[in-house]
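ok new one. same drill as before - structure tokens go in, u give me an amino acid for every spot. 501 of them this time. try not to just spam alanines like last time pls lmao
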């Protein structure tokens, strides 16, 4: 036998060893997907710091300027008080928080003005249409020449590095397919009405200026996100779609859904493809400052795997449950207001879908500072089982006041939304708002809404996330490569190992 010929059992042993060690290493470093954060808890703390800082600024300025426009919402306060926001639209990209922080959209690119609301030829879009804009290869910041109702003929396939910015106009997107983000990154969708989306397909659709492909039938989601990262959906209003209002599946991560209004729908939001899809373990989504409003039934969201941070949202309606999940997702619910329906059988906020208690008892579902109204209750599990549950069951009027303030301008800015409460004013006009509830003497405003435990913050920098260290991964990979090289014939398994890295 040639001295370098591999003995079959030995080869399989080392291949098995490599797969095990690689899996452990990737899991330990939390680096499964592009843009997946290695320390999601540090992202949660960063959101906490930003809300603290924004509310603190508002309280301080309110003492001398009762008409100032700050709301305490760190996203809106980042850009809306600038009277010249329309001349500096791309500032918006600096305002994202949560897991999508760093999403560029079309920042740095040209402004593309949509002047034509038609969608007559999805395979060969007309210049000036939204479809022509979103398929371009280069970064683009897409705006609208005026109010538009865009009735899509088929799904709108959006390319990477695009911002769809509806500020300054009333833009409705409806029709067949609606918005599709498939294996792209750095997309911002802002200030758009999305509604009455229906399944369509089995036709040719352009996804870039040089590629036209046959598409099967879409589900009729409002926004469908597949295999995509760095996605930010902000100040949108979504309703009346055939399938989900927003679905994110197939290894999508680094997503923030914020300041949006959801209504009139059954299955609102799905996060995760199915219980057996391993890449969704790396899904990380921030759901912040949204209003889940009229005539909603379930899935706000329904999550599989991953880490879902649900923070400072107002849930005013559900018929079955608000937050559901399977396949051991982490659900971190902080500072939300849950108003239960009259039905005594639907008071529970949470639902473990098709899973018995013996399986979900160790899942990390936690509630902190949530306000429970009309008998609503959150069932924590795993690391969520603590005294925080007791704190969350008592209503703090300051917390309720802050939720009203943080979500006061949800949905499309300056446009109608289906809600009988709150009000909106045109983006960047610097209009007045109601003063925030509660006194200005509390040091930790975010802790006030969370029920304590936060650090006081009226200045300084947010806590930096820990650096990503790859030393362990590199060392283990080197050892595995060395072993495989010395035990394989002409490095045959070496090439396989490198491929799997």
């Amino acid at each position: 036998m040639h001295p370098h010929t591999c003995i079959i059992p030995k080869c399989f042993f080392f291949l098995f060893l490599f797969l095990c060690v690689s899996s452990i290493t990737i899991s330990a470093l939390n680096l499964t997907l592009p843009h997946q954060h290695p320390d999601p808890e540090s992202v949660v703390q960063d959101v906490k710091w930003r809300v603290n800082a924004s509310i603190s600024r508002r309280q301080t300025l309110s003492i001398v300027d009762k008409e100032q426009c700050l709301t305490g919402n760190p996203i809106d306060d980042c850009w809306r008080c600038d009277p010249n926001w329309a001349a500096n639209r791309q500032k918006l990209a600096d305002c994202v928080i949560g897991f999508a922080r760093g999403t560029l959209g079309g920042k740095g690119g040209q402004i593309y003005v949509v002047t034509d609301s038609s969608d007559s030829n999805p395979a060969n879009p007309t210049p000036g249409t939204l479809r022509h804009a979103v398929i371009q290869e280069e970064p683009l910041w897409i705006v609208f020449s005026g109010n538009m109702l865009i009735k899509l003929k088929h799904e709108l396939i959006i390319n990477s590095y695009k911002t769809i910015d509806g500020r300054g106009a009333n833009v409705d997107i409806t029709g067949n397919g609606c918005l599709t983000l498939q294996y792209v990154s750095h997309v911002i969708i802002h200030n758009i009405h999305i509604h009455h989306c229906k399944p369509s397909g089995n036709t040719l659709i352009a996804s870039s200026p040089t590629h036209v492909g046959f598409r099967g039938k879409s589900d009729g989601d409002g926004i469908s996100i597949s295999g995509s990262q760095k996605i930010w959906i902000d100040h949108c209003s979504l309703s009346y779609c055939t399938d989900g209002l927003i679905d994110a599946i197939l290894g999508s991560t680094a997503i923030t859904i914020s300041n949006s209004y959801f209504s009139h729908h059954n299955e609102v939001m799905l996060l995760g493809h199915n219980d057996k899809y391993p890449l969704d373990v790396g899904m990380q989504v921030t759901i912040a400052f949204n209003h889940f409003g009229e005539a909603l039934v379930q899935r706000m969201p329904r999550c599989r795997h991953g880490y879902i941070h649900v923070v400072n949202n107002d849930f005013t309606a559900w018929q079955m449950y608000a937050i559901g999940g399977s396949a051991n997702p982490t659900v971190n619910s902080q500072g939300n207001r849950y108003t239960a329906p009259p039905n005594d059988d639907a008071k529970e906020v949470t639902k473990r879908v098709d899973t018995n208690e013996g399986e979900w008892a160790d899942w990390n579902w936690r509630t902190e500072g949530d306000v429970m109204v009309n008998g609503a209750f959150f069932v924590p599990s795993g690391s969520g089982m603590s005294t925080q549950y007791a704190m969350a069951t008592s209503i703090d009027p300051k917390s309720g006041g802050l939720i009203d303030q943080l979500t006061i301008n949800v949905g499309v800015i300056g446009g109608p939304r289906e809600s009988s409460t709150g009000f909106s004013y045109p983006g960047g006009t610097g209009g007045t708002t109601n003063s925030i509830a509660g006194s200005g003497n509390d040091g930790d405003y975010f802790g006030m809404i969370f029920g304590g435990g936060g650090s006081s913050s009226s200045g300084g920098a947010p806590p930096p996330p820990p650096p990503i260290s790859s030393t362990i991964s590199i060392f283990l990979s080197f050892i595995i490569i060395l072993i495989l090289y010395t035990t394989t014939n002409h490095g045959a398994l070496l090439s396989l190992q490198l491929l799997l890295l």
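The chain has ten helices and 31 strands. and btw Residues 1-31, 387-398, 419-501 have pLDDT under 50 and may be disordered.
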